[in-house]
Amino acid sequence: MRIGELDIERPVILAPMEDVTDRSFRKICRRFGADIVYTEFISSEALRRGIDKIVRKMLLDESERPAVIQLFGDSAEAMAEAAVIAAEAGPAYIDLNFGCPVKKVAGRGAGAALLKEPEKMARIAEAVVRAVDLPVTVKTRLGWDRESINILDIVPRLEDAGIGALAVHGRTRSEMYRGIADWDWIARVKERAVVPVIANGDIWTAHDALEMFRHTGADGVMIGRGAIGNPFLFTQVRDLLHEGAVKSTPGFRERIAVAIEHLRLSVEYKGEKSGTLEMRRHYATYLKGMPRVSRVRNRLVREDDWRAAIEILEAYESECEVYEREGKIGEYAEFLNDHSRRLVLK
Ligand SMILES: Cc1cc2nc3c(=O)[nH]c(=O)nc-3n(C[C@H](O)[C@H](O)[C@H](O)COP(=O)(O)O)c2cc1C
After folding, report:
1. Which residue among 1, 71, 100, 265 is the active-site one?
2. Hey, what long-range contacts does 307-313 have (CB within 8 A, 24 or more apart)?
3. Gap between the Cα atoms of 252 and 323, Å rounded
4. By CB count within 10 A, which of 59, 72, 267, 302 is most buried?
5. Is 223 close to ligand 1, i.e. is its CB under 6 Å away?
């Protein structure tokens, strides 16, 4: 897949996720093999006003590149101005969010609301393309609801506006995150599009990613929820795509070690207080399915002191070693392997 100077064969991409894909998580996902990572969405209005908390969301580490900055907004002027500011942070490209379904975004005419205004969507894209030298891409959904799917009408408009690639989440705005992403529609988008297409929605395992490539013919795939607490998925997808088999399943030691690394990075980048608090939402997924974990999880999500949180995690690792000697860990590994699209389907 070629976008500007980036040229990566069948890239596996970390999706933008608010409150999840911050610098610490992006860095970890890159280390585990994500080819490209996206920032959380960034408000163009807040960026152009220079709001410190928002500007910090754009800081990119060398080790996480190629990284992409995603912007949202409902005004071509604000989006173009924000893109010029974002370009200074040196992203590989700038992505425009035309798919966010949540009220605070879509309710204000931005994100998925622009699916109801394809002309305005294209005007915004064109303004941003003109404003920056970097490639500009779009991430969107199939349409506002099932009755008004208009992605095939939107594709040529965005291409005329000059976008460099299109990421499509195979759901409509009304579907939010319900049901199963419609990969057939993504295949239709791929047939229609001239620019590279990045397929997104319900990749939970390495086999899902392979199937997404096969089913849609997309140039790249993008993983969101499946990567939360599970950056190991990127290594598994890479191994399956390039070497034909998934080679490793993380055990409890690796999961706990990465949770600790994540916490340390979070504290380094956000300070002790925010870094510790914001890490709370990740523990459940890192420790998912592990033996007798609810007690540990409950302590972690109440812990204000990051050093104490690390002690809890280390003590739990020792506890798991006992379960391992007793032969109880296997049940957990099985659970992780079963976390697939096919199970979600049932
Ligand atoms: C917690 C969360 C936050 C998200 N934030 C964003 C965002 O900031 N920008 C965006 O384009 N999509 C966002 N999304 C949507 C994801 O990028 C992705 O399109 C969606 O989760 C479907 O992919 P998945 O099935 O692999 O999770 C978010 C999703 C989740 C679950």
Report:
1. 100
2. 309/263, 309/276, 309/279, 310/260, 310/263, 310/264, 313/256, 313/259, 313/260, 313/263
3. 11
4. 72
5. yes
Q: What is the pLDDT of residue 346?
A: 27
Is 40 close to ligand 1, i.e. is its CB under 6 Å away?
yes
The overall average pLDDT reported for the chain is: 94
Structure token digits, residue 5: 């100077």
Structure tokens at 104: 């605070």
Query: Of ligand 1's atoms, which has the minimum distance to the CA of residue 99?
Result: 11
How does DSSP assign 21-62, residue by residue? SSHHHHHHHHHTT-SEEEEEEEEHHHHHTT-HHHHHTT---G
Does ligand 1 come within 6 angstroms of the Cβ of 344?
no
Return the residue whose CA atom lies nearest to atom 14 of ligand 1.
Answer: 17
Spell out the domains of the chain, with CATH numbers in brackets: 2-242 (3.20.20.70), 252-331 (1.10.1200)
Q: Pairing between strand 6-7 and 220-223?
A: unpaired
Task: Please answer whether residues 125 and 161 qualify as being in contact, where contact means their C-beta atoms are separated by less than 8 angstroms.
Answer: yes
> Looking at residue 289, what is its pLDDT?
87
Name the residue among 257, 280, 256, 254 with its Cα closest to residue 267. Answer: 280
Alpha helices (H) in 244-329, listed in sequence order: 252-270, 272-286, 294-300, 306-325
Q: What's the gap in Å between 200 CA and the centre of ligand 1? A: 9
* CA–CA gap between residue 230 and residue 167 (Å, rounded): 22
CB atoms within 10 A of CB 317: 16
Q: What's the pLDDT tens digit per position in 20-73?
A: 999 999 999 999 999 999 999 999 999 999 999 999 999 999 999 999 999 999
For residues 122 and 163, the answer to whether their CB atoms sit within 8 Å is: no
100: annotated active-site residue: yes
Which ranges of the chain have pLDDT less than 50?
334-335, 338-346
* pLDDT in the model for residue 85: 98
